[in-house]
Amino acid sequence: MLPASSTPLMLRHDADLTPFNTLALPARARMLAHIRSADDARRLAGDAALRGERRFVLGGGSNLVLDGDFDGLVLKAEIAGRALVAEEDGYRVVAAGAGEIWHDFVQWTLTQGWPGLENLSLIPGTVGAAPIQNIGAYGLELAERFHSLTAIDLGSGETKTLDLAACRFGYRDSVFKQEGWHRDGRMLVSEVRFRLPLRWQPNTRYADVAGELAARGIAEPTPRAVADAVIAVRQRKLPDPAVLPNAGSFFQNPVVDAATAASLAAAHPALPRYAQADGRVKLAAGWLIEAAGWKGRSLGPVGMYEKQALVLVNRGAARGGDVRALAAAVQADVAARFGVTLVPEPIYLCVA
Ligand code: EPU
Q1: In angstroms, rounded to a whole number, what is the distance separating the alpha carbons of residues 94 and 110?
Q2: Could you give the CA distance from residue 38 to residue 78 in angstroms, rounded to a whole number?
Q3: For residue 120, what is the DSSP state?
Q4: Residues with Cβ within 6 A of ligand 1?
Q5: CA 208 to ligand 1 center in whole angstroms
Q6: Measured distance CA(75)–CA(55) in Å, rounded
Q7: Is the pTM for the entire model greater than 0.90?
Q8: Closest CA to 209 of 178, 230, 240
Q9: Longest dimension (CA), the chain
Q10: Which of 59, 79, 234, 304 could bridge 97 with an S-S bond, Cβ 3.0-4.6 Å?
Q11: 319 alpha carbon to ligand 1 midpoint, in Å?
């Protein structure tokens, strides 16, 4: 267990959420609670005055579209802490508080000499948000390094432990999304535990990472070298939200049945396709968006990024409605051209 704090619950009224979402969309919350310990979450669950309030759990706000003001209570997960918990069955179990910054936590594990998460370097957001959409990049998904998590039921105040099976992870998916626990503010992740292999092997399957290591003349990479290669690839393709507000990939890569993939491949041989374990085929949404003419193109103050068409960027003073309009236009064009439905990756938080 990470240390519990006993500071008083910090509750603000009419709070500005603009600094807490990486698309920099303007929005206010009627109430904002800074959750700095699991006890804070339990106390809030037991507070009769807050019962019945609409709730939303916020992490780093890097996978979020704020579509107007929120007439309810936003819980900002800020629980800190990092610790080695155990060594068992060839793995280290490392715990981190939900509010830890994901990238800082990954770099800390590497500094400790505990590799395994390096391919997920530089992903924006917090540790607590990572399992919600099963973050993944450069040949690794969180699920492959996941041990368990602790969550507080914000209705009953109960503490629950969810193991790998209970989280029902899929591509950018988990039980939190399937059941709507996160969006409805029903469960707050307080701590996540990772299972890091004692016998490490570099994961350089992803062509961009292999290419970057080759360009650096590194044949037998250390964990640090893999992390540095991933960071370099990300920095080349993905805009820094601090400079150009964005929420990473704006759409999921669509997964279609084998017959649909075969007919698309016949018509568009260059379309990148990735066979899935269940026989279906994942398509590169970025390619579809580029082919539909949206790469580097804007609609009002928002646009699809010129170096990676899957990333929606805020080039000015955009509002939630601008994001919705561009997303709908891109979806319509891709559907008309390829018959493929693009599903947004971020969570939309709408006005009540
Ligand atoms: N592509 C294009 N044009 C574009 C963008 C991509 O043709 O404008 C093609 C690329 O040439 C490549 C393929 O699409 O053949 C895949 O592109 P890339 O390697 O950039 O990855 P992605 O599928 O677009 C996914 C994740 C990213 C993750 C990268 C690397 C999703 C929705 N996105 O993007 O995750 O960093 O792979 O593993 O699965 C995120 O979720 O926010 C995110 C950034």
Answers
A1: 12
A2: 10
A3: G
A4: 137-138, 208, 237-238, 248-249, 252-253, 272, 284, 286-287, 290, 295, 308-310, 345
A5: 11
A6: 7
A7: yes
A8: 230
A9: 62
A10: 79
A11: 25
169 CA from centroid of ligand 1 (Å): 20
Which one-letter DSSP state was computed for residue 4? P
- Could you tell me the CA-to-CA distances from 300 to 22, 195, 313, 317 in Å, in that order? 18, 45, 11, 10
| Mutate-to-test residue for ligand 1 from 287, 311, 313, highest number of ligand atoms within 8 A of CB | 287
pLDDT tens, position by position, 40-55: 999 999 898 888 899 9
pLDDT tens per residue, range 255-287: 999 999 999 999 999 999 999 999 999 999 999
Give the start-end residues of each E strand in the chain.
10-16, 28-35, 55-58, 64-67, 70-77, 82-88, 91-97, 136-137, 140-141, 146-153, 159-163, 187-197, 246-249, 255-256, 273-275, 281-283, 298-299, 302-304, 311-314, 347-350
Share of the chain above pLDDT 70, in %: 97
The atom number, within ligand 1, closest to the CA of 295 reads 8
